Amino acid sequence: MKSISRFLKFVILFLIVQKGYSQDSDFHIYLSLGQSNMEGYAKIEPQDKVNVNPRFQVLAAVDCPEMGREMGKWYTAVPPLCRCTTGLTPIDYFGRTMISNLPEKIKVGVINVAVGGCKIELFDKDNFETYVAGSPDWLKNIVKEYDGNPYARLVAMAKIAQQKGVIKGILLHQGESNTGDTLWPQKVKIVYDNLIKDLNLDPKKVPLLSGETVNEDQNGKCGSMNAIIAKLPQVIPNSYVISSKGCKAEPDFLHFNADGYRELGRRYAEKMLSLSGYALSNGKESFIVQAPLGFDVADPNAKQGKIETVTYESKTVGSVRKATIYTPPGFNKKKKYPVLYLLHGIGGDEKEWLNGGNPQVILDNLYAAGKIEPMIVVMPNGRAMKDDSATGNIMDPEKVKAFSVFEQDLLKDLIPFIEKKYPVLKDREHRAIAGLSMGGGQSLNFGLGNLDKFAWVGAFSAAPNTKLPQELLPNPEEAKKKLKLLWISCGDKDWLIENSSRTHDYLFKNNVPHIYYIEPGVHDFKVWKNGLYMFSQFLFKPVDQSKFAAYTILGNPAQTNIRKAEYPQILPDNRVIFKIKAPEASRLQIDLGKKYDMVRDSEGFWTVTTNVINPGFNYYSLLIDGVAVADPASQSFYGMGRMASGIEIPNKEGDFYTLKNVLHGEVRIKQYFSKVTNSWREMYVYTPPGYENASEKYPVLYLLHGGGEDQTGWASQGKANLILDNLIAENKAKPMLIVMLDGNVAGSAGFNENALKAFENELKTEAIPFVESNFKAAKDPKNRALAGLSMGGLQTLYAGIKNSDMFSSIGVFSSGWWANNTALSEPQYEFMKNNAATINSNIRELWISMGGKEDIAYENCKIMMKKFDEMGVKYKYSEYPGGHTWPVWRHDLFQFAPLLFN
């Protein structure tokens, strides 16, 4: 009688399903199946039952009267999610992670049908009965809760779910009971294929995610099965293996504990979010950053546009030429449309996009989803010559030249033809141009060169035909006013990425709004199709330029990375992605002044994306289980009293320290024996261009580092040599020697009288005599200057002021006598007060600078300058925002050096 009742219930449910219904495309459904780890073995803890977002729903697959749940109905996904008395599963935190990283309008629903201890054969709809017949009674009893057929129950529930939402994926965790079964992937394929067929799903759009068993790194008893699970993608192309590395296990080493389930569930979600095209939002607004699975697969339910080939007379070429035209679904000749001109690569023609990119399918799907404006797409032959076929030697100079000639063909022949034949809007705001490879270079050249014709410009993997940035945009201000969108995208492994990178660098420096989109990939249609998918969604509607920097998947490796290191990567808005492999670590952080917790993925990689980082040079440390170390992927610098990592962040105002095509000086490393310290010491000496063959003597700037640093600081972190090279090349500074000394004398920090006195002695009796004996150095006071930052600023104040007869200029960067150390500062002020006239007479430039109010020396400096005012000591003050950092001190040198020796 009970079986008859359940049968009638199924009949009613199926009848409901057969009625008409309207799916909500924003309700994403996921089917989950497997054995005990998917069923839920771990105890549900209090944290697992609270704060479950109502947007995360579960469709009850069995009746649970004690929970108030009825089979076939939706409920907020408070565990248990499988059956009435099961435990926590990976699906709990799969759903929570999905919801926390998807737009508010999207809901997530799950259906969990799992049976502890079962083999995958249980879900083979044609052979399950034989398997169940030979199973133990405890398994038969669980199967009875699904009316003897778990597969049929899953399908029945899925069909109910399809009334409300769209099935987006299938999640599997099974394999323990099939350990050693090399046919397991093929058996899973049978189940997957049946689900796809019975639910009328598209396998290209519905991936299968399969989790590993408890990993061998957790002593998993079935860990050997993971080698078989790893072969699943070879059998099911749209399947993905979710690693269980590091996911903690129960003492039986067969099941994950609650923490393990939470972590494994997050990994399922991270993969699904990536496949869906979403960026992890980290609590901020979520958005699509890449094309989701199936974006280029025809949807039988979507209305289709029309493809046709047209011919037009080209006076430029002197022949009749072809173009492929796409008109959108519902094309109406009485309506006027904007136009996108979509260009091919060097080996293609007017059919290349159709043959390799399915643009009509991509656009049809986007129209169906309401994500793009109706537009006409023109795909011409960009090789403007009489024989414009993509045959023979495509690199022949005449054929290559024809791509440039196409600019005139486009402007004078093709556009007028399109505007005569089709109902199109003829203003620049409704005309876009984009292309791949050679066509990407054409798009940049023609679009940016004709801003009166195009307001929307896109380049996918632009080729070397791309003009130099200064030629592309000689007037950046005009581009800012006229461009609606400038899109530049490329694969991170594309050998032509330099063309995109240099254009981006110029645009960044000149504050021209644009999207610089880097994604995993090479020079192929995978990248170009994604470029079209993303670019087209911006066209012909209002755009928010403030969000442009968010549209990328990857960043550029920092210039401070060691050779071939891909991370850290710098995003267009100067956030930084760190990614480090440390499978044995329990906690990783990045310390950039602020500490960032890193998150471990399934492969033992730890990642984090920082906030926006200050431009220029920044120290950072990798904290492994609380121990600060240098990042092995980044260059190391002596700073903070130890070797630390450093990262160079792009700086729009940093042109003065970039490596340019000018004459360059040299940085020489010299050892000398100091009688003051009774030891060998080292100095770095910059000699200007032409020094080797010069007969004249050069003025000398003695330049001092800060606390926790050494003589390498100004050469490495400070880029002093490049700053002077550029200033000298522009005749803004006199050629000079820069002597970069080690201010750490006798192991003492430079913050007390003894240490300052020791440095003074070292400078006067050892360093200066050595320089003047071993270099072409002028020996009179008017040709000597002394400057330093932070601790070096105190050393400069002490040695420079007390020996004003030895120096003509003094520079104090981010420093000042400490207001709370009167025992040190008062004697200095007393000396200056008594010798103010002499100081003012000897020191032509007493130049003080500060990194703004955020500089830790700011208040001390203000007090010190007030003292100077009171005693009549003359000085000049400069302020540059950035705090107590190398970007500030680089700028200090840039401003100070031109003042010297005039």
Automatic annotation (TrEMBL):
Pfam families referenced in this protein's UniProt entry, alphabetically: Esterase, SASA
Domain Sialate O-acetylesterase: 27-273
Domain of life: Bacteria
Keywords on record: Hydrolase
GO MF annotation, one: hydrolase activity, acting on ester bonds
Gene3D superfamilies, sorted: alpha/beta hydrolase, Immunoglobulins, SGNH hydrolase
InterPro entries membership: AB_hydrolase_fold, Esterase-like, Ig-like_fold, Ig_E-set, Mycobacterial_A85_antigen, SASA, SGNH_hydro_sf
Protein name per its UniProtKB record: Sialate O-acetylesterase domain-containing protein
